[in-house]
Amino acid sequence: MADPLTLLALFNDIEPAVNAIDKLHEMGVPDEKMDVISGIPFNHEVLGRPKVPTFVPRLAMGGAMAGLIAALFLIFGIPGLFPLHVGGQPVFPIPPFVIIAFEMTMLGLMGTAFVGLFLAGRFPSYEPVIYVPEISDGKIALVFPCPAELQAQFEQAMRSLDAEQVRLMEAKPL
Amino acid sequence: MATTAESIALPDIPASASENPHEHLMLDPRPRGEMNGMVLESMHKTSKKFWGVVVFLVMTVAFALVGAWGYMIANGMGVTGLTRPVYWGIFITNTVFWIGISHAGTFISALLRVMKYEIRRPFTRAAELMTTFGLIQAGLSIFMHLGRVWLFYWLVPYPNERTIWPDFHSPLMWDFMAINTYIIASTMYLFLPLLPDLAMARDRSTGWRKIFYRIIAMGFRGTEAEWKHLKSAMNIFAFAIIPVMFSVHTIVSWDFAMATRPGWASSIFGPYFVIGALLSGIAAVMIVLFVIRSTMVNMKYFIRPEHFDFLGKLLLIVSMTWAYFFFNDYIVPWYGGSKFEKILEDFHLHGPLSFVWVSMLICNILIPWAILWNKKWRRKPWLMLVVGILVNIGMWIERFVIIPGSLTITRMPFTWREYKPSIEIPLTVGTFALFMLLYMLASRLIPLIPAWEVQEGQNAHILRKVGKAAIPSVGDID
User: Fold this and answer.
1) What is the rounded CA–CA span in Å between residue A84 and residue B444?
2) Smallest CA–CA separation between B236 and chain A, in Å?
């Protein structure tokens, strides 16, 4: 059997796009094989699709812990290395620790959330991808594989559901 | 694009039958392609007047900032007006002022995002840019104050050549940590919601702009997974950056409050500084929105009287809160009867700078209270510009009164001396010029309107009929 083709169906509105997703389910395309590309975010419940997992929050929590550990070193590790008596304060002070721990924890949390987006989204990526510029102008694209022998059938199904265009796509540089 | 959303009450748009609902941006949608075109046109259409202003600002920065700073470095801090007992002058005043300005971006963008205030959508980016550029000016002002600026790295937590680490008992180190956390976090927070708009600019640009946007859009396409990761990161930032914002100005206030000086040793300084920061920040957003609206094409569609009305209400509430904290900070030392606190209060009220102290109260209390109670006046952009400028003058004065104004009176009367700034004045002008220059240049490269967020909001809004009135409503599609 020949390699499946990749089709891109472009819709003007969310309603026909959601109907087309249902139709693709009926035609045997599983959720994990299709993708929805849009100029604004749509909740998975709006699209009737499974929730997309993301590890960004878990990574951010790890970053927060790392930040806290770094703060522990700054506040308790440094005076351990170089004990300084300042203004009658203890060598290992708790109140300044609260401040430094807060700042470092938040920096770790946000820094890793930022890095997490790049890791999870695989940014930056300048490899050829399937995309059409009309998406950022408000169109909604469904990208899905289809067997070569069923191409006409899939195209007809998408057009009957108000797809503005159905194109055979190959990955291109953005 | 139409969506069906369950109608719920909308908190920030007045449900009045006498108003035209289409005056609300969220209820006046345009096709996304057209909206993108409007945003990009506003970036690309540049008049000769614009470049004339840019050249003027470049020259001002060159002479007033670079030139004056170079002169100060070459000749030492003796060329400033700093002398005993006022060792913290206008540089620290400017630092606190610019950090205050930077609070608006986070407050407006993050807090209103968390609270789901839909009216925020068109002006979050303009406010976030202010945060980043304001913090740059704050950082420069600290460096000016350092004198030997080339040794700034001594603050960085690593052992110096004497194998001594910075001492974290010091409030100045807390400041270093807090301000750096805020600079890094707010710059990242500016970039996150910008990513889809950079992708939009990439799709519609040609030539060098296409290459530029292709690089910084980083391959963003808008797949479900990309949106999910982006929204997830934005949510984390929106929640986490709010307490960081509060911490920054609280810690800045501790630079003063931790000292046992008259006028500084105050347990209320933390919240007093935070609310002052919000007051100047919101006023600055009003100024920026007025300038954007009146100088950039198509901006009247995005920035409307309803936005000035909303910011005006916010400013009025914050001004009242500032007055409450100011009075608290004033009455307790007055009642306490400490000799030097009394002398300082007399100095503020009847000394040579008493007109400055009174101007602060006029600008921060009288003007906003007299104007902002009136809805019609709040919807006049030019009037909001005037209020914004006066409030910012008042807030700069407040920092001046607190810092050099209070340092003048110490517990050693033989040291009392008035502070007379000299080279600090051109350097202050330089920071303002640099802020404006950076903002103007950014407006040519960065979409100042988050087009995707505006469209997302417009998709969620509907008019719901209640009796004979059409009530604006918003569906929660997040």
Assistant:
1) 51
2) 7
